[in-house]
């Protein structure tokens, strides 16, 4: 029986905007600026005790809405037990993709996985959570795989211990399934071959899983896809991700709807060039000296929709100026938010919801989305008309300028005509303040009214 698609609020099916491919647009052609946050347990439960309450998904959605966020990554995980960030060995996760039927027990003491039988709880939860997000006006990037499910991610020798090795709890580990599948035939102890095309039987299982995910949510408008979070940056792993980008696109050709497919930067060893050269519609790069996405983001040229995600920049961190620097360089925004802390993690001291770094970032992202909603982004491009270096502009129509200091600055409207109403925005509080009306055809000088930084919006007045 075909699934009935409930009415989804405020989320039109996305496609790359032909007029301005830095962004997505809905079926009406209106640009949809993606700005939001995500947390690790918003699909798969992470637990350290059986009696712990489940993730508060409704509370999480309410927090997104309260902060004017419209986008999240939905975190799919592959492994059932152990984690690179947990030295205690108490971490476990569910519901995963496959049923645990036995005969026999896996390494975590629970019944082995039957890789020929999907667990319906995994997919019903996926659909329900995408639906509920869409009803709140939130887009969801459904992530199929995760690089932190297959072995270590580097670290000091004291961290390379069995209790931190998620591969031991992976369904494709030879000890954990009844189907004779061995994702580590070279006996490396990490299973990273499953994120390559090296083992055809595993690629076939992964393709079946991807088809099942797509079948589950294809009729929903508020869905995007992401292949994998931070698989290794080896050529084999990159080729594996590109294979699945193409696979998703090909499979959806015969379906009701086609959704954007994303590829986020591998780790370790990831290269942003691999993302830009990939067949993906949207990408999330990392920070390098040559491409300083944390401190001075490169301007988007429209080759890909770029989602600047703090997860791939800081891991767990960020600062409000990054929001506005990224916005004025034509980048979409995502915050890795420990709204639900990463269980048992000893990696970050700010790994809790109310750490003082998070609320200013959450608010800033919402303020940026509000500015985007008020501005027709279809013709807005990164521009050099401001002496601050941070400006989006549609010549002769509008501009948004970010000044990261309280110093005076100029906006060069020499080549523009008409009069422009100006308004200040305080990036810290969201407060607005009129800034007068200005005649174009010359350089305009401004003194920021806020400290430490300010946003200036200029819009052409009606003729």
Question: What does this protein structure show overall?
Answer:
By secondary structure, the protein is α/β, with parallel strands linked by helices. It has two domains: 15-377, Glycosidases (TIM Barrel); 383-460, Jelly Rolls (Sandwich), CATH 2.60.120. Helix content is 20%, strand content 24%. It contains seven helices and 23 strands. The chain has helices at residues 57-66, 120-135, 200-217, 235-253, 272-276, 320-327, 358-374; strands at 15-16, 24-25, 31-32, 35-38, 45-47, 71-74, 92-94, 98-105, 111-118, 139-146, 223-229, 261-264, 282-284, 305-309, 332-336, 381-382, 391-394, 398-403, 409-412, 419-425, 432-439, 443-446, 454-460. The strands form six sheets. An eight-stranded parallel beta sheet has the order 4-15-14-13-12-11-10-6. A six-stranded antiparallel beta sheet has the order 16-17-18-23-20-21, covered by helices on one side. It has a three-stranded antiparallel beta sheet with strand order 1-2-3, with no helix packed on it. A hairpin with a 3-residue loop joins strand 17 and strand 18 (398-403). Helix 2 (120-135) packs across helix 3 (200-217) and helix 6 packs parallel to helix 7 (358-374). The longest helix is centred in the middle third of the chain and has 19 residues, at 235-253. It is elongated and about 80 Å long. It starts with 14 loop residues before the first strand and ends with a strand. Residues 1-8 have low confidence and may be disordered.
């Amino acid at each position: 029986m075909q699934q009935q698609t409930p009415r989804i609020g405020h989320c039109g099916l996305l496609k790359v905007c032909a007029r301005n491919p830095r962004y997505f647009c809905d079926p009406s052609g209106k640009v949809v600026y993606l700005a939001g946050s995500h947390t690790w347990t918003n699909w798969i439960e992470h637990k350290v005790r059986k009696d712990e309450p489940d993730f508060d998904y409704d509370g999480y959605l309410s927090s997104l809405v309260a902060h004017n966020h419209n986008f999240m990554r939905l975190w799919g995980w592959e492994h059932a037990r152990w984690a690179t960030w947990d030295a205690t060995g108490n971490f476990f996760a569910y519901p995963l993709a496959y049923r645990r039927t036995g005969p026999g027990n896996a390494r975590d003491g629970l019944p082995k996985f039957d890789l020929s039988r999907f667990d319906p709880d995994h997919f019903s939860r996926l659909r329900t959570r995408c639906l509920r997000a869409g009803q709140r006006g939130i887009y969801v990037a459904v992530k199929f795989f995760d690089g932190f499910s297959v072995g270590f991610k580097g670290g000091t020798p004291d961290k390379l211990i069995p209790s931190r090795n998620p591969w031991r709890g992976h369904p494709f580990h030879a000890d954990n399934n009844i189907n004779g599948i061995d994702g580590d035939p070279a006996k490396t102890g990490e299973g990273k071959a499953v994120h390559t095309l090296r083992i055809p039987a595993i690629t076939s299982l992964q393709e079946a899983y991807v088809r099942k995910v797509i079948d589950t949510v294809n009729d929903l408008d508020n869905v995007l896809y992401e292949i994998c979070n931070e698989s290794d940056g080896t050529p084999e792993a990159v080729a594996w991700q590109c294979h699945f980008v193409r696979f998703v696109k090909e499979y959806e050709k015969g379906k009701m709807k086609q959704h954007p497919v994303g590829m986020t930067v591998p780790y370790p060893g990831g290269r942003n060039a691999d993302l830009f050269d990939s067949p993906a519609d949207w990408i999330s790069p990392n920070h390098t000296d040559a491409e300083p996405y944390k401190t001075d983001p490169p301007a988007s040229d429209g080759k890909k929709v770029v989602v600047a995600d703090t997860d791939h920049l800081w891991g767990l961190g960020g600062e409000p100026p990054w929001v506005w620097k990224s916005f004025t360089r034509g980048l979409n925004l995502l915050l890795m938010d420990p709204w639900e802390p990463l269980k048992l993690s000893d990696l970050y001291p700010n790994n809790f919801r109310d750490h003082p770094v998070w609320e200013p970032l959450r608010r800033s992202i919402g303020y940026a989305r509000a500015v985007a909603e008020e501005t027709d982004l279809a013709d807005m491009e990164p521009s050099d008309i401001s002496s601050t270096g941070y400006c989006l502009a549609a010549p002769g129509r509008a501009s948004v300028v970010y000044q990261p200091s309280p110093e005076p600055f100029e906006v060069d409207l020499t080549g523009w005509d008409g009069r422009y109403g100006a308004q200040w925005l305080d990036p810290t509080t969201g407060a607005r303040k009129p800034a007068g009306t200005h005649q174009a055809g010359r350089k305009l000088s401004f003194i920021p009214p806020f400290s430490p930084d300010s946003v200036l919006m200029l819009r052409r007045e009606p003729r």
